Every structure is written in structure tokens, then in C-alpha cells.
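Supplementary Methods, section 5.1.

A reviewer requested that the exact input to the structure prediction be made available. We therefore reproduce it here, unchanged from the version used in the analyses.
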Amino acid sequence: MRAPLDPGRYLIHTNPVTRRLLPVLAALLSGGVIAAVLVAPSHGVSTPAPAAAQTAAPTGQPAAPKPGSDVVVARVGSSVITAGELEQRLAETPRATLAKLGSTPEEIRRGFLEQVLIRDVILAEEARSQGLDKKKDVRDRVLAVYRSALIEGIKTEKAQVTDDDVKAFYDANKQKFSAPKRIGIHRILVATEDEAKEIIQELGTGEVDSKKWNDISRDKSLDKSTHLRGGNLGILNEDGSTTQHDQHYDPGLFAAADKVKDGELVQQPVKEGGNFAVVWKRQSMRAMSRPLELEAPGIRASLVDQRVREAISALLQTLRPEHLKELNPELTDMVSVNAQGDVEKAKRPGVLPRSKRAANPLPVEGPGGLR
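The structure derived from this sequence is encoded cell-by-cell as follows.
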């Protein structure tokens, strides 16, 4: 029996992107408000998430703190900024951004501390003092950060797709990465061989006159499903199958068309059931097979996406019974949404739909006329 999924472990296996999200979660857990969620960067500085508790190393094991990494370099209200946090945030910030803060290492370190970290924490402290952490839109954005961090952690763990995994998928799905030779065919279906020969003679041996072909197809073809579109059968495979799974034609049409060049008319009638076909080869596509080396990146990404979806689905199945306390799906009828996804304003209790409202009263004849 598989052990139950632990959602907390997905916040440990993180990449650099997620590591910038985790201080946000730590700040939330400590009752803080997230400056990066509330305030946009200024002066062209790319503002990462606010400083807070350190995150775990991407290997899944807590990184050993460097000597002096817990030294407090700034204290803002109830928050502290340590040397370790400063170092990590500097490492995650683009060089171009850091270059704007100073021309020497000392200027960059102090500029980043003053203009980014302290600025973020001051704004976060003020936001908390104003009660912004209680506002629904802020809480929604914080929850979005939670979801992003959790999904990033799952993706990082499930991203370990090996070359053997990729090859196994390729070998099991080779039909998806190859295609047989295919031919685009137009044909006019008539009852007799002589009638087919007359049409071939009328069209001649040179370049086919498409207008004349379409006129003959409309007037003489027995196939009423294609006669108005020039007898276009679409793209045929060697066995007569087409891209439309419900359409299948005589393989003899493919065999006959395969003997002439693109754009040429087959000079002999082709027997098709109890009738005869005049065949015009419009185009052809060579057989192709895409090698594993070319398809590997796409396969790898697809496998990661599949595993992430499965992991999230399994996690939800585990968590749903524990966390879902009440569900009233019938009450969703109070929200009006049409098939195009347009949502109407919420209905107020006691308000009749427009179609059921009383009509305006009819005019009444009075001493002064209608009123």
C-alpha cells in the first residue's frame, strides 16, 4: 500500500523560482503581509519576495548554514534580515539589476539591503498595521502563492525523467512519430468504363483544367457527397483510410495515383466497386519518421506534465476528505453563466428576472385625454 502523500514535502524540493516564493509563505505563517504581492518594484529594481525565513536547499535536505549567516544585519518592526538572507537574495537577483545599485561590492550589498530588502519589509510592516492582510483580495493572492509554491515543488520532484523513460515512451508510441506515404486525390465516379474513358479524353493529357474538372464532377459524378467539391476525397493512406475516420475508399485509388506525378491525371479508369473512377492526383506526402533525438525534448516535457497532473490529482484525493467540510452544488444556480462563459451580476434576493417583471400599465382615458 502506497504511503499517503505529504503536501509539506513538496515545499522542500524547490528550484530557484520557488525559493523566492517560500519566504512569502514563511511571512504568512508568522502573520506578516507580503510586500512583493502588494507593492510593485520602483526605480527599475526587480524586487524579489520580501525577506523572511530561509528556505530549504533544492536537494531536499536543509542546507548547512554558513558561519555568521544568522547575524542580523537589519531589524524592521517585528522582522529581521540576516546576512544569510541577504546573500541568498543577492544570488537570486539578475546581475543587471545589481549593477544599478553601485559600482563596488560594498555599494551593491548596502544598496540591495537599503533599496530592496529593507524597503520591502517596511512596506510589509505598514501593510500589516493597516490590516491589509485581512482583505480578501490580499488573502487570495497569498493563497495563489501557496498554490504556486506547492505545484513548483511537485514539478521539481516529478521532473526527474530519465533517458530510459523517454525511449520507452518513444518505442511504445512510434506511430505518433511517423507517418506513411499519403496522397491527396480527387476523383469522379461514373457507372461505366466507357464513360470514364470519355471524361479522361475530354480532360486531355496535359495540365488538368480545374474548372472543367469541377463542372464534370458536379454534373456526372455518382458520389453525391463529393461531387459539389470537385470529387475531393482528402488525403488517403495506402489502405484507403483518410484523416476522417468514418471515410474509407478503395485502396486501388491510391495504387493508381501512386504511379503518376503530382497534378497528373491517371490515364486509365480505375475500377471502384461496381463503378469506375477518374482519378486526379493533386498532391503527395512522403513517408516520414521523426528520430528519438528530435522528439526527446517534447516527450520529456509531456512526461513531466503527465506526472505532475497525476501527483496533483492523487494529492487532492488525499486532502479532499480531510479539508472539504461543506458542499452545496445546488446553490451554484444563483450564479448565471452562459455557454460562452459570460457571467452576469449576482442576483439579489426577491428580484424577479426581467422576463417576469410586470409590464408598464396601459394608458387610461381621462378628461384631459390619454395619460
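The radius of gyration is 35 Å. These observations are discussed further in the main text.
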